[in-house]
Amino acid sequence: MSQPVNYNDRPWLDPEAEPFIKVQSVSKHFGDFTAVDSVDLEIYKGELFSLLGGSGCGKTTLLRMLAGFETPSSGSIVIDGVNMNNVPPYERPVNMMFQSYALFPHMTVENNVAYGLKRDGVARSEIDRRVADMLSMVELTQFAKRKPHQLSGGQRQRVALARALVKQPKVLLLDEPLGALDKRLRDQTQYELMNIQERLGVTFVVVTHDQEEAMTLSTRIAVMDAGRFMQIGTPTEIYEFPNSRLVAEFIGNANMFEGRVTENGPDHVAIEGKNPKCDFYIDHGMSIAEGTKVWIALRPEKIRISKEKPANGGINSVRGMVHDIGYLGGTSTYRVQVGDGHLVEITSTNQSRPKDVNPPIDWDEEVFLHWEPSSSVVLTK
Amino acid sequence: MSVPAETVLPAGQSLGFRLRRRLLYLVQHHWRGLVLVIPFGWLLIFFLAPFFIVLKISVAEAIIASPPFTPMIDWVSDGIMHVRIVIDNYAYLWEDDLYVNTYLNSIKISTISTILCLLLGYPIAYAIVRSSHTTKHILLMLIILPFWTSFLLRVYAWMGILADQGLINDFIRWLGYEPIRLLYTQTAVYIGIVYTYVPFMILPLYANMEKLDWELLEAAADLGARPMTTFFTITLPMTLPGIIAGSLLVFIPATGEYVIPDLLGGGNVLMIGRVLYNEFNANVDWPVASAVAIALLLVLVLPMMLYQHIQGKQVEGK
Questions:
Q1: Pairing with B252, which of A144, A363, B8, B317 sits 20 to 30 Å away (CA)?
Q2: Exposure of B133 by Cβ count < 10 A (0-12 exposed, 13-18 middle, 19+ buried)?
């Protein structure tokens, strides 16, 4: 912690940085339904910020309020120092890439991209130049004269991106940008998006329900549920230190154990597990009153599985029976039954070779699971 | 499944059997084509046949007889056939200012009516599409409701409203102004046509707008288009097929309209339907009347072909 922090990559840590987008206690009600419930959010310039949550969590409503398609029922949205509450969408310094892409079907690719520039009264030659630049960036130059229905899904996605970026917005809003693409194209486009964002330095706000997408793309993620933010942080923070069961379970897989704090030491806590009955010892800084009922989250890849009993005397270790093995090529997923019917998921990389002396772990075998004192996270809500 | 076309039949099988076999083959292999027999048959009996009868009469001469026109084919004697085609009727239409002017007036009235229907129908259709689910159904019902009353009755009702002693003039008098002449004027004809045909504009427009992706309008706004610009660059081009369909549904019947100009326009507004009526009934000149009808058809076929062309392009576009 003694090294100076490089704020360029993490502006949210810089106490002097001024947030670029400020969402101040914004709520949105549709009749009786509260889509967004008094949220606060600060996004900094050049960030690639993700709003992550299941359907109906309010993430799209929040994005639409940033774009100006919905007005907040209360609270205010400030972009680059200007209160946006009474600014119509066509005067906001933001552009949006729609989930459906919303390409104009009666216009060619070229005219779709040029549409925004024409509205700003940019000179014809300037429009031609910028559209050509943008199309070459998304590698669609030879498709300039085509209509959207003559393009593939991936190509349409790139037209939508080009159309939203050509006006050089201060903020680009992306609604499920990769949602309509197949897996292979998604992975590829994901990195393209990151490169473009880095190159242009535009602030991206991405709405997604796909946690993997959010993890790869984002500088920071806000996990939303029922119109509120559950946690805001970097992908690592959210994955390694989720602040609630909901976040832990939403981001990646997590094994949950119920327990009670038995010892609250200066640099560790000890917890007695309820099912399975085992002792947890956690050594990263936290302080929880003795007797508190807590949950312990343990990521599948942080558990080691072996056929030999570990030497550490039963702490952070449990015995179980292999219930299922999922072979995924590079990794294997084991589901091990511990205690009273509780299934624990373990992921381990496959390092064994066919000619190994030790036979691999098999179905219905007795195994031992163990983990490091720093591996688990204690959750109180 | 398939029955070969020419099955080798054992000798001695009856003709009836072979015929049935043949029919079965036709049904099994060409049933898709057979389905088309119904619409094509319909068109043949109720459109093409009458059309040729009228065409035939239009090239005959009027005589005082029953029927009141000369036959096309005379058998002179010894198998000599005399075919008589008179194109005088068409020349007559062209030479007489009355007919040319009536055609032009009909087209003028139906064009202006179509534009008025569009200006009135477009916002109505837009409002219906944009309203909530329940309101939408009520509004659509209200558009269709007038059709439940006789058309003639509704036109008579307008006579009562527009007459010198009618509702409107009573109101004007009550306000203390001079009454105005409405009935038996061109204005009355416009009111009647727009009133009658505006649903035919609204319904195709509604059907078209219902399919419009409203996200496109948001996308346009997002890219900096003000509402007016969005309307002219996105909404209008996207609803053009609806505008064309509605316009044709108004323009075509309005051009040949007879009842409205007769009842609301009196003798002051000449439209082609009225001329046709006069030629048939007052003058008993069936050939000229038929020529008028054929010429009208030509006038109307042109916009229809235009529509077909645009629709064809639309399908191709998808």
A1: B317
A2: exposed
**CATH number for the segment(s) B88-317:** 1.10.3720.10
Interchain CB distance below 8 Å, B218 and A90: no
User: What six digits make up the tokens of B218?
Assistant: 């948001």
Query: Would the ipTM clear 0.90, i.e. be above it?
Result: no
Contact A116, A134 (CB under 8 A): no
Where are chain B's structural domains?
15-83, 88-317
Candidates A364, A376, A374; CA nearest to A255 is A376
Residues of B in contact with A106 (CB under 8 A): 237-238
Q: Average pLDDT of A266-293?
A: 80
Superfamily in which the A11-246 domain is placed by CATH: P-loop containing nucleotide triphosphate hydrolases (3.40.50.300)
CA of A30: how far to CAs of A271, B69, B130, B251, in Å?
Answer: 44, 74, 17, 44
CB A98 to CB B219 under 8 A?
Answer: yes
Quote the CA–CA distance of B277 and A34 in Å, as a whole number. Answer: 67
Amino acid residing at A276: P
Give the position of tokens 């205690």: A339
Q: Residue B36 in 3-state DSSP?
A: coil
Are A68 and B199 spatial neighbours (Cβ–Cβ below 8 Å)?
Answer: no
CB contact under 8 A, B223 and A106: no
Query: If you count residue pairs, one on A and one on B, with CB atoms under 8 Å apart, how many are there?
Result: 61
Residue B240's pLDDT band (cuts 50, 70, 90): very high
pLDDT in tens, B173-208: 999 998 899 999 999 999 999 999 999 999 999 999
Q: What confidence tens digit (pLDDT) does each residue in A128-155 have?
A: 999 999 999 888 999 999 999 999 988 9
Domains of chain A by residue range = 11-246, 253-379
**Pairing of the two strands A48-52 and A220-225:** parallel
User: Distance from CA of residue A297 to its chain's centroid?
Assistant: 18
Q: CB A90 to CB B221 under 8 A?
A: yes
φ and ψ of B69, to 5 deg: -150, 160
The answer to whether residues A63 and A175 touch, using CB atoms and an 8 Å cutoff, is: yes
Candidates 3.40.50.1980, 3.40.50.300, 2.40.50.140, 1.10.10.10; CATH matching A253-379: 2.40.50.140
Buried b / exposed e across B246-277, counting CB within 10 Å, b at 16+? bbbbbbbbbbbbeebbbbbbeeebbbbbbbbe
